[in-house]
Design goal:
Strand content: 25-35%
CATH topology: 60s Ribosomal Protein L30, Chain: A
Number of domains: 1
Radius of gyration: 15 Å
CATH architecture: 2-Layer Sandwich
Largest sheet: 6 strands, mixed
Helix content: 10-25%
Shape: globular
C-alpha cells in the first residue's frame, strides 16, 4: 500500500493498493526492529533504536517506509492498529507540536507499507527520507485519474 500527498495547484492524496516502490537508496535513517507495538497506547517507550536520534526537521516533508514481516498486519483507518502504533513510536524523528503533546507525523508526505516481508518473523524494517515540498506537484498521470 502506498499513499502520497501532493501539493501545489491540485493538492490531494493518492492511496493505492499496489506494492510500493522501495525507499530511495539515500535515506536519513533506517533500522530493523525484531518486534513492534501492536496498538497505540500512551506511555509506551517506543523504539530504543532511535531514542537518542535527533528530530529530522531540516525539511518540511518526510518519506516513510514500513516493511512488516507478518503478512496479516491490518492496514486500516483509525489510531489503534500496528501501523499507527509504529508511526507513534517514531516520535523522536518527527518532533512534536501543540506544547509537545502530539507527534508531528503530519509531515509524512510519502508513506509506503509492505506486508509479508519475512512471514517467519514479527519485526518491521523502517526507513525515513526527506521529501521536499517542491518535489510534490501532482503528476499528470494522477491528474488524469481525477478528471
Amino acid at each position: 500500500m502506498s499513499a502520497r500527498l501532493y501539493l501545489g495547484e491540485h493538492p490531494g492524496i493518492l492511496i493505492q493498493d499496489v506494492p510500493p516502490e522501495a525507499p530511495p537508496s539515500e535515506t536519513i535513517r533506517s533500522f530493523y526492529a525484531t518486534s513492534h507495538s501492536e496498538s497505540s497506547e500512551t506511555g509506551r517507550l517506543g523504539f530504543t533504536e532511535i531514542a537518542d536520534d535527533p528530530v529530522h526537521s531540516e525539511h518540511e516533508g518526510l518519506g516513510l517506509a514500513l516493511d512488516f514481516d507478518r503478512s496479516d498486519i491490518p492496514i486500516k483507518d483509525g489510531f489503534y492498529g500496528p501501523t499507527e502504533a509504529v508511526i507513534d513510536d517514531l516520535g523522536p524523528w518527527f518532533g512534536t507540536y501543540r506544547s509537545g503533546t502530539l507527534h508531528a507525523d503530519h509531515r509524512v508526505r510519502d508513506l509506503r507499507i509492505t506486508r509479508g516481508a519475512n512471514p517467519d518473523r514479527a519485526g518491521v524494517r523502517v526507513a525515513l527520507w526527506y521529501v521536499p515540498d517542491a518535489e510534490l506537484p501532482t503528476p499528470a498521470d494522477v491528474l488524469d485519474l481525477i478528471d
